[in-house]
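Re: the multi-chain job from yesterday

Posting the exact lines I submitted so nobody has to dig through the queue logs.
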Amino acid sequence: MQPKPVLLKILDGLAVILLGVATYFALVKAPTEQVMGQVQRVFYFHIGTAWTALLGFLFAAVLSLVFLFTRNLKWDRFQVAAIEVSLVFFFITIVLGSIWARPAWNTWWTWDPRLTTAAITELIYIAYFMLRQGIDDPDRRARFGAVYALIGGISAPITFFAIRLYRTIHPVVIAGGNPEAQGGFSMTPSMLNAMFVALIAFTVIFIDLYWNRIRLGNLEDKVEQLKLKVML
Amino acid sequence: MTVKSSNIVPTKTDQRSAISAPSSGNYFKAVSAVVWKDLQAEFRSRELFSAMLVFSLLIILIFNFALELDIKTRQSVTAGVLWATFAFAGTLGLNRSMTIEKDRGCLDGLLLAPVDRSAIYFGKVISNLVFMLLVEIIVLPVYSVLYNINLFQPGLLLVILLGSIGYAGVGTLLAAMSVQTRTRDILLPILLFPVIIPVLLAAVKASSGFLDGAAFSDILLPLNILIAYDIIFISVAFMFFENIVEE
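And the result, structure tokens for all chains:
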């Protein structure tokens, strides 16, 4: 097992520091929102995790194509790592959104298009892992995972656009889309700052976790090969 | 190409026609061979069809108790109940169809044939689609009679066709994957349902639109979504089916 690269150790430290900075900006430095009050602060981490998770899923779908064309198992390990980290981040997004929703909309959950799509997307990638668990042959596991990640990755935006064309109550913070969307708020520059700090922080945290997860995947692979050697 | 005619060698005409036939002819022949095999096998045993049909009727029965279908509610939930029924019964058909292929070694036999793998995919999609449509064609009048709603409207039939095409298209690919895993049958619904949501969504919207007599401009959007989904996903499945079945 190769020792941790220096760059990764630096990234680990940087991720922790940035998390602290983002927390400070979100909880202390950002102004309190006028209408919703303190609970709005959840928004900064909600956006941070949502943005990275969705990019992660998109990246995984691209990795599917790369694997299917190159048939090099390392792309499969990259994909598993991407989906695993994105899955956790997206779950955090959903939970934070729920926490925000309770005081804001007086309900933990609603079947608004964006939330429904989020739930479906989460289930697609949970199903990805259930699919992989049922296959022993690594090559087949990689192929099936790649095809399913591709299909799931394509269906998620389609699902979103299919239901978004109907009424939505999710705040449309960045303009465009449904003009009839109720609920929205504009951000002051200091709030924008906090949001960008959170975005950058979570991107770095994502990359850090992703790299660590890839190393873990490489280790898992080595263990499997050793097991096979011992069995034979 | 000349072949000496003799009693032992297969006739010249067979060989020549097999070699000089255009590849598209072979492809089409392969697809229809797969479809015909499935239809014939099913016609003899009728196990798939009867299971799907009885299951559908039982689901409708359960919905009768699950939802209070008084006359007013009935109108609004018919589309949803129908599509839930088709989705669940469809899973049954897809699972069984691919399990038969695997267990009886048909899939291996098909893979040995010198034809593009996607022909197998299209053949299976068409036969799965035929089974689904057969079941739906029977469920519709039964539902109409039981709940006193006329379901034989051309618009509704179109939606059912488009939705079933999308369902069978994606379902065949995912079923081909799930039968090769340890968890087999159980895995198909888990894989299929999240991905098939746009179909169910658009199909239910379009179906209830047609049943309620909504303006065509309202129904056009879900119909377009259905058509777009069918095209996109069948193309994707067609491109990647080979990766699923290779050894």
